[in-house]
Design a protein that fits this description.
Blueprint (H helix, E strand, L loop, with lengths): L39 E10 L3 E2 L2 E2 L6 E10 L3 E9 L11 E13 L2 E12 L16 E12 L2 E8 L7 E3 L5 E5 L4 E12 L2 E11 L8 E12 L2 E10 L15 E3 L2 E4 L2 E4 L3 E3 L4 E9 L1
Antiparallel strand pairs: 1-4, 1-20, 2-3, 4-5, 5-6, 6-7, 7-8, 8-9, 9-12, 10-11, 12-13, 13-14, 14-15, 15-20, 16-19, 17-18
Length: 293
């Protein structure tokens, strides 16, 4: 969020010494005081990416995504927002093709240091979570997290903790069979750096670790390195994203939870995957074009 600054008005008085009086109509009128800046800020963002990666994992089966959202910020530090993207149902959202994020929190900076406290709801309208182990009345796939972040200059550290079943999933064993155990408590820790090189150029890097609860082979590390360029207000970026997530689709060895199907449909509580599959954690170059308004 952009930090809101309260505008200050500087008034200067000029006195003139003269032996003669100055007619009233010739005197300069006092400068009008500028209106105080609003404590509220509204902004929007729009992006087109060649592939949507969430915590390093493919959400669109390698296809492009159109993304965008709105943000509200108050000078006190409180904020709220909404962000949206198309997704592939095969990423774990049976019958769903849209991600909607709703979030809010409090963020403040003191010189080079910053603190961010908040909560977020990931919601997939139209999806069916019952095939993921929650039962017939589970409704749409969701994920609820609380988070705390800290920053210093160009470095940031953030911890996110799931307070419900992680994306409506229940646990599984080494064979992939459901254990019915809750995945609440799954958490993600990420360290990121973003450095301004000047003249509109920037570099950024990221490493994150997902610690999956009761999901055999579900934990993994992801990383990213990228470069960006500001072109007349549009930010063009190119990044390489990779993970060590277990996503082999060869069908041999231990269960590979990140081998995703192209699509998933819910049929009376059962999941029917299409024949096309892909390693959702494989390394890939991602091109993006974005803008904030």
């Amino acid at each position: 969020m952009k930090k809101l600054l309260t505008a200050t008005v500087l008034a200067s008085a000029v006195s003139a010494l003269s032996a003669f009086s100055v007619p009233a109509f010739a005197q300069s009128a006092p400068a009008a005081e500028a209106a105080p800046a609003s404590p509220h800020e509204l902004s929007a963002n729009l992006a087109l990416v060649s592939s949507y990666r969430f915590r390093g994992i493919d959400q669109t089966f390698g296809r492009p995504a159109l993304q965008g959202g709105f943000d509200y910020a108050h000078e006190s530090g409180f904020y709220a927002g909404n962000w949206n993207s198309n997704v592939s149902s095969g990423a774990g959202f049976p019958d769903g093709n849209l991600e909607m994020d709703l979030y809010g929190g409090w963020k403040k900076t003191w010189g080079d240091f910053g603190l961010d406290l908040g909560a977020i709801l990931y919601y997939y309208p139209g999806s069916q979570g019952r095939g993921l182990g929650l039962g017939a009345d589970s409704g749409a796939v969701t994920n609820k997290e609380v988070y705390v972040g800290a920053s210093w200059q160009f470095l940031s550290l953030k911890y996110s903790h799931s307070v419900d079943d992680y994306f409506s999933l229940r646990g599984w064993d080494a064979t992939g069979a459901s254990t019915g155990k809750s995945t609440r408590g799954t958490h993600y820790l990420e360290l990121a750096a973003s450095y301004d090189l000047g003249d509109g150029w920037g570099i950024d890097a990221h490493v994150g670790r997902l610690s999956a609860k009761h999901m055999k082979n579900g934990s993994y590390t992801d990383w990213k390195i990228g470069v960006s360029k500001d072109v007349n207000g549009w930010l063009v970026g190119l990044a390489y994203v990779d993970t060590n997530a277990k996503g082999s689709c060869s069908g041999s060895g231990s269960f590979q939870p990140y081998c995703f199907a192209k699509s998933l449909q819910d049929d009376a509580g059962a999941l029917d995957a299409s024949s096309s599959t892909k390693d959702a954690g494989r390394g890939i170059a991602v091109l993006s074009v974005s803008r904030s308004f």
